Sequence to fold (383 residues):
Amino acid sequence: MTVRTRLIVLFVSAPILAFVVVGGMLGRVSARQDAYPHLRIFEDVLSLISSNYVEEANLSRVMRGAMRGLAEGLDADSAYLPPDEVQLFESGDKTATGETGIELTRNYYLRIIATRDNSPAARAGLHAGDFLRAINNKPTREMSVVEGRRLLRGAPGTKVTLLVIRGNAADPHAVEVTRETLGGAEVTSRLDGQAGIIRISAFGPTAAAAVASQAAELARNGATGLVVDVRDTATGAYDAGIAIARLFVPSGTISVKQMRGAARQQVAAAAGDGVVKLPAVVLVDDGTSGASELFAAALADNKRAQLVGEHTQGRAAVQKFVRLPDGSAMLVSNGWYLTPAGAQIHEKGLTPSIAVDVPDVEFGATPPPGDPILQKALETLRK
Fold:
């Protein structure tokens, strides 16, 4: 290896070494020792690139790609943020109050987890499972979820163009969405015969109180059972999901939190919990994510409700923001929530006890009439 090549390797490896040190702070000595053999291979790869690539490599670009690869090798929620994205992440944009209603994850491209009820994205026909190949002509292949969220936001009334893939990757669709200030109730309810139907579109700070009051109102109006719909619900804090689960679960474990290097923490029901006593079923699908999965798992494991619908997203990680010496940063999943029985939710999801197969709808096509998941839930309640 030439002197020049060694200098290049040292220059490019320095941020990686810094990341390993940070990782060692999180994972202690054993994590560093496991990383050293890989760092030696990494040095060999850099030497090979420097000596054999057809032209002089753009080392900054190579470095960013390597750091992104490290994050993507962990999970979809972990991310590497270059210095410019860190500044935007920390400062925010107070004028960007307009939203599309899209919740994102990463899966090669950015992928839609869910769209908020009555949001611009929902009205445009976008839904869970759609891939965003580009946002305003900017490819998402090397884009973090943080950057994707930032690009989707803007001033109310402004437009954002999305290149959407559904099914056939060779046939993307350009969709123009107008940003809005999202409003509307996070919890709504209605009576269908003797079944009370509660829709939770987001797990906000007032959602628990709204569910409690609306469940009581439905019972007064003659409801003998409840259908709680958390399909396409991916917005809200984990604490809110636990708080709403407390309304239904009078005793036992509601959730389990597992942080790196710490003993598992059980979240147990307390005196006064379980105020909602009507029989219940919970509607779930691929857009059920985060706080809604904690809620669904709590009711399912405590035999308080059956889950009806499709397999859920599997997203229950706790993120840690770690700055790196060069001004960049990592968002690292350093903990996650488990089901009350101790099963992993993150990247695994929840399997409903009553599965309902919902056919995919071609882009631009009108969905078939009816709601098979809701109908199955109503049948279950009647039984």
Observations:
- The two ends are 74 Å apart (CA to CA).
- The mean pLDDT is 89.
